[in-house]
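Much of what follows relies on a compact textual record of a protein's fold. A complete example follows; check for yourself that the lines match position by position.
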Amino acid sequence: MHPHTPPDHPPGPDTGPGAAPELLLRRTLRRHPAGVTVVTVPGPAGFTATSFTSLSLRPALVSFCVATASSAALAVTRADRFAVHLLGADDAGLAERFARSGTDRFAGTPYAYRDGGLPVLGAAPVWLAARVRARHAVGDHLLVVGEVEAGAVRRTTSPLVRHAGAYTTTRAPADVSAGPEAETGPVAGPGGPWGGAARRRSAAGPVRGC
């Protein structure tokens, strides 16, 4: 037995040797903490995702994936660029809003348009804008790769994390310097350029995308 394997925790009924692969994946990935983001594309359209990751530094490439059955999937397939917003610990309400189906996710959410009609949310502490370089159908999801063109760290905050079906957070990093903003384009949403988006903590709520 591995020295770090607890002897009194046998595998559950859906994580044992005979478990269906999709159940095994779902159950095990609930134990994997992931940063919560909101991805937006021209339309505007957007959704909450935990699949955002970096791929390369030179060139600066990032990726995310979206379920092909998602309401935002069509807009993603048509978009030539996207923005990824890294959410802070107080942004669970924003994450829930962009995970909810059948509603206008941008209603009451301050945002501004960048080049090409790309919506950038005002409440997110960190954002990146990228131009689409590749799309790949992978199972029941679409994998999108983009090359970073712009972005900013607006403020230092603890990140919003998804773990075991709930929103949680970690301790804030010791030193993160906010970079200069370079926002352009007409402003949408209430409360001035970025307004004051309502925020609240939440312990649950679906996360779309992947």
